[in-house]
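User: I've been trying to design a sequence by hand for this structure and keep getting stuck. Would you show me what you'd pick, starting by listing the structure so we're on the same page?

Assistant: Good idea, let's start from the same input. This is the structure you sent:
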């Protein structure tokens, strides 16, 4: 069977309000600079009209902001469409399999395919070399024996999951380096001995003694991990 069709057929039915909320959150992650692709959508209104574009925001009062695609979605303009959630009767998500992790609340992975313009994902050996570099950089910034490690059990031996892990480690180390610029942050990080990464049932950051554990569902790509702003909030919370 076509892998995309297989994923599409396993997408769960979901309420429109939650789907649109997840698509709005995805747009915010893209705006923050994460490598996520926001799917084109068609909102079918109760009036019989359609609005084609990208969901930007959904507020608590039930108002939607959509970036209108215009006559040609390949060359969108800068049209902002405002409409009430109650006006939307149905939603079409174009190329839905690519956004499967977000549409399924993390239950499905997108069909694995390399992102355009990227080389092959890193090997475990390459990641281990990078771990040593990250460790040296953090130790210099924090002034302690903090080490950056991976709990390899449960982590895929190869493939796109390793690219996701690589980016998760890089983003977390960047956040830690920013925190180390502040005296309180540097002091909190100095009490740690390990910054450890691994596979988990859901994205999370938690403190275990003198170690901070950062886990993700790596097979889901960006959808299975915390974004940089979320990592910053989580690190500040556990430290």
């Amino acid at each position: 069977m076509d892998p995309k069709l297989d994923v599409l057929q396993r997408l769960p039915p979901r309420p429109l309000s939650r789907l649109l909320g997840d698509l709005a959150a995805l747009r915010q992650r893209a705006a923050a600079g994460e490598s996520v692709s926001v799917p084109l959508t068609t909102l079918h209104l109760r009036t019989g009209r359609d609005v084609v574009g990208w969901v930007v925001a959904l507020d608590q009062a039930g108002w939607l902001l959509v970036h209108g695609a215009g006559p040609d979605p390949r060359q969108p303009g800068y049209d902002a469409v405002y409409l009430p959630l109650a006006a939307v009767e149905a939603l079409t998500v174009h190329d839905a399999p690519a956004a499967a992790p977000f549409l399924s609340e993390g239950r499905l992975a997108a069909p694995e395919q390399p992102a355009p313009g990227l080389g092959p994902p890193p090997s475990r050996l390459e990641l281990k070399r990078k771990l040593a570099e990250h460790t040296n950089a953090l130790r210099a910034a924090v002034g302690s024996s903090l080490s950056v490690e991976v709990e390899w059990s449960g982590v895929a031996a190869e493939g796109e999951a390793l690219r996701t892990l690589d980016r998760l480690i890089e983003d977390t180390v960047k956040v830690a380096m920013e925190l180390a610029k502040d005296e309180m942050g540097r002091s909190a990080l100095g009490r740690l001995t390990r910054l450890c990464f691994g596979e988990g049932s859901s994205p999370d950051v938690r403190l275990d003694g003198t170690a901070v554990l950062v886990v993700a569902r790596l097979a889901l790509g960006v959808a299975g991990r915390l974004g940089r702003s979320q990592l910053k909030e989580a690190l500040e919370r556990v430290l």
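That's my pick for every position. To get oriented when you compare it with your attempt: The beta strands are 41-45, 50-58, 63-68, 79-84, 88-93, 147-150, 194-199, 204-208, 211-216. The two ends are 48 Å apart (CA to CA).
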